Amino acid sequence: MNRVLSSAMVAALGLTTMVGCASKKYVRNETAPTITKVNELDELTAKNSNEIKDVDSRATSGIQGANQKAGEADQHAASAQQAANQAQQLASTAASRVDQLSNQVANLDNYRDVTDATVHFGFDKATLTPKAKEALDQLAQQFSGAKNWVIVVDGNTDKIGSAEYNYELSKRRADAVVNYLASKYSVPAHKFYMIGLGKDKPAEEGNSAKTRAENRRVDVHLMTNIQDQQAQAQQPSPTQDAQR
């Protein structure tokens, strides 16, 4: 009897084990395709994510490059505008100097030269040399003999450097001459006609060292008013009035 019971229990246990193993195998067989699909989807999702990141990276890089190009274009445009403004300013300055010179020439049509002097300067200098002062001293000796006179002072430079810088340099050279004559010989300010011509009126054409030295100069003209002298000559003298 006991043997029969034991055999029955062993048989039942074996059957249970067989059923359990069969169930697990069934589950594995059924779920394996799903797991495989899930894994494939994970791989595809990861691949798509990487591709999206790559596209985003390239798009970001492209946008940054475009912004950089736009910034460079803005800088070039600003530089071009600045250069145009500077050119316009130089043109306006040159036109103003021409107008100033024209007005002076119009006023000086009634004058004639009594004497003149030319003084030279070192490269990029506006300081009078001893030789220049000597030439101005000789010109000043004519002041007492002239009537209704003015002094025309034209500053000049060589062709080296920008136009704007040379205008300023030529004016400083003319100022040096005016200051010397005003301080040493008490010439009043209204007696001077002064202008800085820069490199616009060279004494000599060319680019040799000798030519450049000749152009670094100030031309000084002592001039007298012809109309005033003629008017004075036409006025009757006290003797003539008495004879009338």
How would you sum up this structure in a few lines?
It is built from 6 helices and 4 strands; from the N terminus they run H-E-H-E-H-E-H-E-H-H. With 244 residues, it is α+β, with helices and mostly antiparallel strands.
- What is the string of SSEs from the N terminus onward? HEHEHEHEHH
Number of helical regions = 6
Read across the widest sheet, the strand sequence of neighbours is 1-4-2-3
What's the number of extended β-strand segments? 4
What Rg is obtained from the alpha carbons, in whole angstroms? 50 Å
The helical percent reads 55-70%
- Tally of discrete structural domains: 2
Fill in the CATH topology of the largest domain: 60s Ribosomal Protein L30, Chain: A
Task: Summarize the biggest pleated sheet.
Answer: 4 strands, mixed
- The structural class is alpha+beta
What kind of assembly state do the chains in view correspond to? single chain
Low-pLDDT windows of residues:
none
CATH superfamily of the largest domain: OmpA-like domain
Based on CA inertia axes, which overall geometry fits?
Answer: rod-shaped
